[in-house]
Amino acid sequence: MSSKLTAVEQVIQQATGHLDRRLFVIAGPSGVGKNTIIRELLATHPEMARVKTYTTRARRDDEVEGEQYFFVTKDEFVRLAHAGKLMEADAENPLGHDVYSTKHSYSMPRDVFRDIQGDSHIVLAEVDIVGAMRLRQTHPTCVGIFITAPPDDLLQRIRQRPDDDMTSDDLQQRMVTARKHIEAAKEFDYVIYNQKGHLCEAVYAVEKIIAAERMKVRGAFDLKAIVPDSAFDVIEAKLSSNGAGK
Q: Which CATH number fits domain 21-215: 3.40.1380.10, 3.40.50.720, 1.20.59.20, 3.40.50.300?
């Protein structure tokens, strides 16, 4: 499946031979629909890929190893941390941070682009608030998109998950964490409200944000270097030639 490039991206690729990868950080409370939104985007956008995260929690029945997560034991997680392979865990803190206080660890790989195929230049990272702050530090040009929803929707979605070990205490802790996440929404570039029954609208909103960011002028972007004066010289020569023949 070939990548979908905007007209500007096609010009840049033809002129320079490559496209810089763009990192979009998608965060929000547990149960807000982050993974569902990303799945919908990946199904229709071959130019997009996702950062795969390591976790020590058990794989759910509807999850595929290596699609969203690498499911590892705590010992394996610690070995990766000591080897410097993880972004959110290291030798001093080998189990990283427990996102929801459920005794499970999560971490992105230190190189977030490690598993991204060469023709996927739009990269989506599903993270919590701590992960989002870390990515801001390591990839300052990343775009932060915060997904939120009414608390009742969050609780209902979490309860529908096939987690055998999800206790009432776990649910309570996730709601406490959700409150903290919402307080941090002001640190993001965009906020999207994913209400129950409006998934398509949320996906469409993310698509529009990504589309706008792909056309935004950034850093050392130099259109003149991509469309040089010689291109105009050719046109002017043609116009002069046509005028001389009249």
A: 3.40.50.300
